[in-house]
Write a structure and sequence with these properties.
Layout lengths: L5 E4 L4 E5 L11 E5 L4 E4 L8 H4 L9 E3 L5 H4 L7 E5 L3 H6 L7 H8 L34 E3 L4 E3 L4 E6 L8 E5 L4 E5 L17 H12 L5 E4 L7 H14 L2
Parallel strand pairs: 4-5, 5-6, 6-7, 11-12
Antiparallel strand pairs: 1-2, 2-3, 3-4, 8-9, 9-10, 10-11
This protein binds zinc ion.
């Protein structure tokens, strides 16, 4: 179908891409960032519909995809990109193809999500086309071509992003900070919700607390998260402080 992805321009050479037909649990943001020399795309959606088919312009400048971590809702489209970067810790999962399903119960089981609350049955509310079979869904392997670590820099020409390794949600979770503007792309490390996901088998609350201590004092102009809407520094500091108090 056309219209699987929603594109929203956000200020200066930045486009937010979202998937309105995906359940809130897995509806992640892609951030398409244009530099003077090259583009990058931060995260790649669920991979139900090919980005190349729906948004061919995204691929005109052969962008690198930078994955904030290896979960299916961020890595689903990664295999479509020629250059793929993420933290080294997430590399084996990406190379194997992350655990994935569009069925709640099966996904919970594959990812080790505690099922104390009933899982949603199907995680998309519309089929991309009539003969699409959700049972055939999987995330394609996407071996990395660049391994990232804390303080690495990604230069797009006219803008540079600094990698912040902020483990907790997953061991190799990263955020990307454009230092001269204070724009932070935070992946699943932090978004505007007091229920952050720190209970997966690979999650670590002690690591998450360290990451939140850094975020609680970080100077930013805006946070563009992996889920939901963007928010400001005051909210960032409040969310991080809330987490530290809650897990104390
Ligand atoms: Zn995640």
């Amino acid at each position: 179908m056309s219209g699987w992805y929603r594109q929203t321009p956000v200020g200066d050479n930045l486009i937010r891409v979202s998937e309105p037909h995906v359940h809130a649990l897995l509806a992640a943001n892609l951030w398409w960032l244009r530099g003077t020399d090259r583009d990058i795309v931060i995260d790649s959606g669920l991979g139900v519909v090919a980005l190349r088919d729906e948004i061919p312009a995204m691929f005109e400048r052969d962008p690198m995809v930078v994955l904030t971590h290896s979960h299916l809702d961020h890595a689903g489209g990664a295999h479509e990109f020629r250059e793929r970067a993420a933290h080294a810790t997430e590399a084996p999962t990406l190379a194997a193809g992350p655990p994935a399903s569009l069925y709640g119960a099966e996904l919970y089981q594959k990812m080790g999500i505690p099922d104390d609350e009933p899982a949603p049955e199907l995680l998309i509310d519309e089929l991309p086309h009539n003969d699409y079979d959700p049972r055939g869904y999987r995330v394609e392997p996407a071996p990395l071509t660049r391994l990232l670590d804390d303080q690495d820099r990604i230069d797009l020409g006219g803008r540079t992003l600094t990698v912040l390794h902020l483990p907790g949600h997953s061991p190799g979770s990263i955020a990307l900070l454009e230092e001269h503007t204070g724009v932070l792309f935070s992946g699943d490390v932090i978004y505007d919700d007091d229920e952050l996901i720190d209970f997966l088998p690979d999650s670590s609350i002690p690591s998450y607390r360290q990451s939140m201590k850094l975020l609680a004092g970080l100077a930013v102009s805006v946070v563009h998260p992996g889920h939901d809407h963007s928010f400001d520094q005051a909210r960032l500091h409040q969310l991080a402080t809330n987490y530290l108090e809650r897990t104390n």
